[in-house]
Write a structure and sequence with these properties.
The protein has 408 residues and is an alpha/beta fold. 36% of the residues lie in helices and 25% in strands.
Length: 408
């Protein structure tokens, strides 16, 4: 057998990359993004089925293999696969839900339009644009006849913006699937096309404090649940200050936020009940249940849950953080692909959270976050919009990441 000279292999690779990039159509990409934005999917309060219908129709027409898994009524996870060889592949991850549009939009939020090089509409940045860029990249690879030695796939989950039921169902199914084999995960969330190698996680902790009602003229006859909750929140504030004293250079620190509080039945009554909803941001090695256990211990040590006061608490949502080494080949592949797509991509960390933590923690697959759009200036904002230049660059970079995946 005659070996092929190394230079000819590189030449073939370069020609294939040029062919694939030439098949990425800006009008097609913009049209798909607009269709995805128009499909809506507000969460809480809606479903993601219409978005999945758009994705499924496009991917089937593109010749990709598709599947869905119903997580809850009207809420299907969606997977599109460009099949290849049996080597560990590359998995792109996204979500089909968007936050509620709210009021104050200059035009209806689910009637997308283009102006001054930007595509406007709820979800354009977070993250219908990222989904469209991945699908267009996979289609270009298919149309070019690229024969990858691995599967390249998009997993699009429901409920990322709330409780994460979609990603948890996806990882559970993946763990039970002996054919699941991926060695890299690229989360297509908006990062301004920076390469994010680590994210904080997030968790919700619900506290229910119960006391004893009494007339406010005789407060000693009762046990005030609001007073007890205030003492717990003092513990939370102290712990928040402790956390801020130990800053990680990439991800900052864990943090507490008191999001909701309600209690009492009237001004002239000693409050018999108080509920508090806490947001606890997590570092990659944090465990929300252990954090809650420590808070429970502090509550008991301070004597708050005594003398007629009881405290019930539970973790109602946990999204793990993650960190991928800066010298990992996935990081180098991202930076190189983005450079060849015309983007000088910084390597950064995120204080936000995303579903990539589940892929890293539960499936052991290294993850990064790279996507078009701005997390801080566009995501969840009124008149949300996305740069079309970034959108195209993302699709080009995703295609190159696939072509270069697994190459040292």
């Amino acid at each position: 057998m005659t070996s092929i000279p190394h230079a000819r292999v590189l030449g073939y690779q370069e020609l294939l990359e040029q062919k694939v990039l030439g098949l990425i159509s800006e009008p097609e990409l913009v049209a798909l993004t607009k269709d995805l934005v128009a499909a809506g999917g507000e969460n809480p309060g809606g479903t993601e089925a219409a978005t999945v219908e758009v994705l499924q129709g496009f991917c089937l027409a593109a010749g990709l293999e598709v599947s869905t898994e119903t997580v809850a009524p009207g809420r299907p996870n969606f997977t599109a696969v460009l099949p290849g060889g049996d080597r560990p592949g590359i998995l792109f991850l996204g979500h089909s839900d968007v936050v509620p549009a709210g009021t104050g939009w200059e035009r209806p939020p689910f009637e997308p339009y283009v102006r001054d090089g930007r595509l406007f509409g709820r979800g354009s940045t977070d993250m219908k644009g990222g989904l469209a860029a991945v699908v267009i990249a996979l289609k270009a690879l298919k149309d070019a006849g690229a024969e990858l030695p691995f599967n390249a796939a998009l997993a699009c989950t429901v409920d990322e913006e709330d409780l994460g039921i979609g990603i948890q169902a996806y990882t559970a199914a993946a763990l039970a699937d002996p054919t699941f084999s991926y060695s890299a995960c690229v989360v297509a969330e908006p990062t301004d096309l920076e390469t994010v190698i680590g994210c904080r996680g997030d968790s919700y902790i619900e506290l229910n404090v119960t006391g004893k009602a009494a007339h406010s003229g005789r407060p000693a006859d009762g046990r005030n649940a609001i007073d007890a909750a205030a003492k717990i929140l003092s513990l939370v504030r102290d712990d928040h200050a402790r956390l801020q004293a130990e800053q990680d250079p990439l991800l900052g620190a864990g943090s507490w936020n008191i999001g909701l509080i309600s209690g009492g039945t009237g001004t002239s009554m000693v409050a018999a009940e108080c509920t508090v909803s806490l947001d606890r941001r997590l570092m990659p090695d944090d465990d929300a249940q252990l954090i809650l256990d420590r808070l429970r211990d502090q509550i008991s040590e301070a004597g708050i849950d005594s003398d007629g006061i009881s405290v019930a608490a539970e973790v109602t949502m946990e999204m793990p953080g993650f960190r991928t080494p800066v010298d990992h080949t996935l990081v180098a592949n991202s930076v190189s692909a983005l450079a060849d797509a015309g983007v000088d991509s910084a390597i950064t960390g995120w204080t936000a959270a995303c579903d990539g933590g589940f892929i890293a923690r539960d499936l052991g697959v290294p993850a990064i976050v790279v996507g078009p759009g701005g997390l801080n200036d566009q995501a969840h904002q009124v008149n949300e919009s996305l740069s079309i230049v970034e959108l195209v660059a993302a699709a080009r970079a995703y295609a190159l990441m696939c072509l270069r995946h697994g190459r040292s």
